[in-house]
Design a protein that fits this description.
The protein has about 70 residues and is mostly helical. It contains three helices and no strands. The radius of gyration is 29 Å and the shape is rod-shaped.
Length: about 70
C-alpha cells in the first residue's frame, strides 16, 4: 500500500510539473505572437541600413531611346 501511494505522489507531481510547463509554453508563445504582431519592421530596417539607403532608388532611371 505504501508503494502505491508513493507512485501516486511521484506521478501526480510529475503531472503537475508537466501541466505547469505546458501553461508556461502556451503563455510564452502567445506573448511572442503578440510581440511579432505589434513589431514595426521599418525600425529594424532603418537601424540596419539607415534612412538614406532606404530612400535611394533600387536602380538608376532608364533613358528613353532618342531622348536628349
Amino acid at each position: 500500500m505504501g508503494e502505491t501511494w508513493m507512485g501516486l505522489a511521484i506521478g501526480g507531481s510529475a503531472l503537475a510539473v508537466a501541466l505547469t510547463m505546458a501553461v508556461l509554453l502556451y503563455w510564452l508563445e502567445r506573448r511572442r505572437a503578440r510581440l511579432l504582431r505589434n513589431f514595426d519592421h521599418r525600425d529594424c530596417w532603418f537601424v540596419a541600413y539607415g534612412k538614406c539607403f532606404a530612400r535611394r532608388p533600387a536602380r538608376p532611371a532608364r533613358r528613353m531611346r532618342g531622348a536628349r
